[in-house]
Amino acid sequence: MSVDNLDHMEKTNPEPDSAAVQERPDQLAAITAERDQLAVEKADLQDRLLRSQAEFQNLRKRTERERVELFEYASMEAVRVLLPVLDDFERAMKAETEAKEYAAGIELIYTRFYDTLKKLGLEPVDSRGQPFDPQIHHAVDMVETEEAPDHTVLDEFQRGYNFKGRLLRPAMVKVAVRPTAK
Q1: Please, which residues have CB within 8 angstroms of residue 174's CB and are 6 or more apart in sequence?
Q2: Which has the least CB within 10 A, 79, 146, 154, 157?
Q3: Are 68 and 45 contained in the same domain?
C-alpha cells in the first residue's frame, strides 16, 4: 500500500473522534427517554379521549331518557289538577235527585271525562278487599274487626290513581285491624 492510498483511506473512512463516540449513547438515551415520555402522553391522551367519549355517550343517553320521560309524563300534573273535578262528578252521581235527565247528563259528562283521562294514561287503583299497601294507600281510619283479615282495606274514602304506571294519588282508605285482647 502506498502512502497515497493510506491518505485516501483516512479521508474516506475517518476515525471518529472520542467526543462524537460519547455523544451517540447520550443522544440515544435522550431519544429513548423522549420516546417513552411521548408514549406515556399518548396513552394518557387516548385514555382521556375514551373517557370523554363514554361521558358524552352517557350524557346523550340520559338526555334522551329524560326527554322521553318529559313527553311521557308531561300531562301528569294537568291530570293531577283535574282529579278533584273527577271526584266531584263521582259524588254528584251518588247524590239522590228527582231530575232523571239531570242525573243522566251528569253521568254522561262524567263518563266522557273519565274516558278521556283514561286515554291519557289514568288508571284507578283497586283498593277494596286488597291488603293494605302503604305505597299506594293512605290509611285514614283503622277499624277493629274480626270480619276481615288483618290489614285489609275495608272501604275507600277517595279513589287512588296511577298515571302510566306511576302513582299519581294514593287511595284514602279504611283498614281492618285485629281487635286488641282485653
Answers
A1: 139, 140, 141, 142, 143, 153, 154, 155, 156, 157
A2: 146
A3: yes
